[in-house]
Specification:
InterPro entries: Ig-like_fold
Order of helices and strands: HEEEEEEE
Protein name: Ig-like domain-containing protein
Strand content: 25-35%
Helix content: 10-25%
Oligomer: single chain
Largest sheet: 4 strands, antiparallel
Organism: Nocardia aurantiaca
Radius of gyration: 23 Å
Shape: elongated
Number of strands: 7
Number of helices: 1
Length: 141
């Protein structure tokens, strides 16, 4: 091996290492400030099958990257949602179809924010009972 070949190999190794470090920095940098800082679901503490609720994610830094919403890992209809440049809130409608524990997640640039909500059976008043849940909790069972 001559000196020229050895120099080319060293330069190639250096460029490869630099590229790997730059790639890590690029992949990590957006995550540093691009995440939902809060996730809320309307309806207070009472949620029923068949009723519609609003999920609201707060995005403090990145208003250019869309936010994906999932329910127990399944993407919601209408997701992903693009934030407004004028507001730090992103919303989507959610209508649970099953009872039990639901992990609701908003994800932006690979950073998730989750909350867990307990969903009760459909109100005995059907969809009319959806608006009554907060007013008369005894009617929602």
């Amino acid at each position: 091996m001559n000196a020229h070949t050895a120099r080319v190999r060293r330069v190639g190794t250096g460029v490869t290492a630099f590229g790997a470090v730059a790639g890590i920095i690029i992949l990590a940098a957006p995550q540093a400030g691009a995440w939902p800082s809060n996730l809320e679901v309307s309806g207070g503490s009472t949620h029923n099958v068949g009723c519609s609720y609003t999920l609201t994610a707060t995005v403090e830094v990145d208003r250019l990257t869309s936010v994906s919403f999932t329910d127990n890992g399944t993407e919601l209809t209408g997701s992903p949602v693009s934030p407004s440049l004028l507001s730090n809130k992103v919303t989507i409608n959610w209508t649970p179809t099953t009872t039990g524990s639901h992990e609701l997640t908003a994800t932006q640039t690979f950073i998730p924010k989750s909350i867990t909500v307990q969903v009760s059976p459909q109100s005995s008043f059907g969809s009319v009972g959806c608006g009554l849940n907060g007013l008369f909790p005894s009617l929602s069972g």
